[in-house]
C-alpha cells in the first residue's frame, strides 16, 4: 500500500492562446482546476478508490460554469443542453455511460449509477432519463445550465449548418469537456469524462466522450485515458483504446503511446485535441495538438501542476 498515487484532470483543449484571456479569467480557470484537483486528490490521500476520485473531480468541474459539462454546457441547435458522460474502472473493466440527457446536474454520477445499478453499460436519451427518475434524480430547470457566453456562441452559428468545439473559436470563448484519470494507493486506475458536446449540434449528435474506448477508457493492464477534442475524429481513431493498445501490444511507455496517438495518429486523420492519461505506477501523460489544454495533476511525490497553454 505504499505506492505512488496520482490524479490528472482536464477542462478541454482548443484554441487557447496566451494573451487572449484576461488575467482575471485565467485566474478563475486555474482556481476551478485547482478546486477539482484537490477534491479528487483528497480521496486518494485518504485511501479512497480511483473511481471515487475521478467522479469527485469531474463533479467539481461539472458544477463550474467555466467548463462545457454539467452547469455551463453548450447549446444544441434547438437551444437545449444535451449532455454525455462516462466512467470506467481499470480493475474490473466495469463501465457506465450516458448520452443525450437533459436536466441532470452531474451526468458522471448517472454514468456510474448505470454501471453499478443497471445491467447495462450505455443508456441514452429518454430511456436514460427514465432510469435517472427511477433513482430519484432531481431534474434541474434549463436556467441552471444557462451561461451568457455559451448562449452568445450559439447565437453566432445557430442559423448555419456548422457546429463547433466550444473552446476552439476566436475571442475569449474557450471552454471544454472535462475529464479525470487517477491511480489509487492500490495501483488501480480509473477514468471519467463529461461534456455538453459541441455548440449547435443536432439530430442527436453524440461525440466521443461517452463512448468507451473512444473518449474514455481504463484498464489496469495499461492505462486510464480521458480525451477532449473533435469528437468525430476521436471516435474514428478509437483514441483512448488506441493508447492502451500501443502499450499492451507494442510495449510502448505511457508517454510514448499517448504522444504517438495525439501528435501523429489523430493529426493524420484530421482531428485536433488532447488527452490525459495515467498508468498503474502513477505516471502521467497530457499531450495535446492544439494551442492549449486546461489541465492539472498532482501526485503523492509532491508534483503539482496547473496549466493552460503550451510551454
Ligand atoms: N470531445 C467532445 C465532443 O466531441 C468535445 C470536447 O472535447 O469539448 O463532444
Short characterization:
The chain is built from 9 helices and 12 strands. It is of the alpha+beta class and 311 residues long. The strands form 2 sheets. Strands 4-3-2-6-5-1-11-12 form an 8-stranded mixed β-sheet.
Describe the overall structure.
The protein has nine helices and twelve strands. Helix 2 runs antiparallel to helix 3 (107-117). It is an alpha+beta fold and 311 residues long. The protein has helices spanning 23-45, 50-62, 107-117, 125-134, 142-145, 148-157, 231-236, 239-250, 254-268; strands at 6-14, 83-89, 95-101, 122-124, 178-183, 189-195, 216-218, 223-229, 273-279, 284-285, 292-299, 304-309. The chain has an eight-stranded mixed sheet. It has a four-stranded antiparallel sheet with strand order 7-8-9-10. Helices cover 33% and strands 23% of the residues. The protein has one domain (6-309): (Glycosyl)asparaginase (Glutamine Phosphoribosylpyrophosphate, subunit 1, domain 1). It binds aspartic acid (ASP). Residues 12, 68, 165, 176-177, 195, 197-198, 207-209, 215, 228-229, 231, 234 line the site of aspartic acid. Aspartic acid binds next to strand 8 and helix 7.
Amino acid at each position: 500500500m505504499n505506492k505512488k498515487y496520482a490524479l490528472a484532470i482536464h477542462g478541454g483543449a482548443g484554441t487557447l492562446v496566451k494573451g487572449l484571456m484576461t488575467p482575471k479569467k485565467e485566474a478563475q480557470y486555474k482556481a476551478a482546476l485547482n478546486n477539482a484537483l484537490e477534491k479528487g486528490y483528497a480521496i486518494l490521500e485518504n485511501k479512497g478508490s480511483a473511481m471515487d476520485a475521478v467522479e469527485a473531480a469531474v463533479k467539481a468541474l461539472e458544477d463550474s460554469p467555466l467548463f462545457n459539462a454539467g452547469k455551463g454546457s453548450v447549446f444544441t441547435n434547438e437551444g437545449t443542453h444535451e449532455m454525455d458522460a462516462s466512467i470506467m474502472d481499470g480493475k474490473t473493466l466495469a463501465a457506465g455511460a450516458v448520452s443525450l440527457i437533459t436536466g441532470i446536474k452531474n451526468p458522471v454520477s448517472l454514468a456510474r449509477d448505470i454501471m453499478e445499478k443497471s445491467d447495462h453499460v450505455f443508456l441514452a436519451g429518454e430511456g436514460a432519463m427514465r432510469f435517472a427518475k427511477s433513482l430519484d434524480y432531481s431534474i434541474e430547470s434549463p436556467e441552471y445550465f444557462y451561461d451568457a457566453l455559451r448562449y452568445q456562441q450559439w447565437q453566432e452559428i445557430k442559423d448555419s449548418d456548422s457546429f463547433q468545439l466550444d473552446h476552439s473559436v476566436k475571442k475569449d470563448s474557450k471552454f471544454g469537456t472535462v475529464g479525470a484519470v487517477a491511480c489509487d494507493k492500490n495501483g488501480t486506475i480509473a477514468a471519467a469524462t463529461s461534456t455538453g458536446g459541441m455548440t449547435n449540434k443536432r439530430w442527436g449528435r453524440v461525440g466521443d466522450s461517452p463512448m468507451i474506448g473512444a473518449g474514455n477508457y481504463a484498464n489496469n493492464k495499461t492505462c486510464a485515458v480521458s480525451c477532449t477534442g473533435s469528437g468525430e475524429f476521436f471516435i474514428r481513431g478509437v483514441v483512448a483504446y488506441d493508447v492502451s493498445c500501443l502499450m499492451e501490444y507494442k510495449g510502448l511507455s505511457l508517454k510514448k503511446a499517448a504522444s504517438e496517438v495525439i501528435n501523429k495518429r489523430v493529426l493524420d486523420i484530421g482531428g485536433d485535441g488532447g488527452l490525459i492519461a495515467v498508468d498503474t505506477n502513477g505516471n502521467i501523460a497530457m499531450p495535446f495538438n492544439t494551442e492549449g489544454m486546461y489541465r492539472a495533476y498532482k501526485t503523492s511525490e509532491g508534483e503539482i501542476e496547473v496549466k493552460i497553454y503550451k510551454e
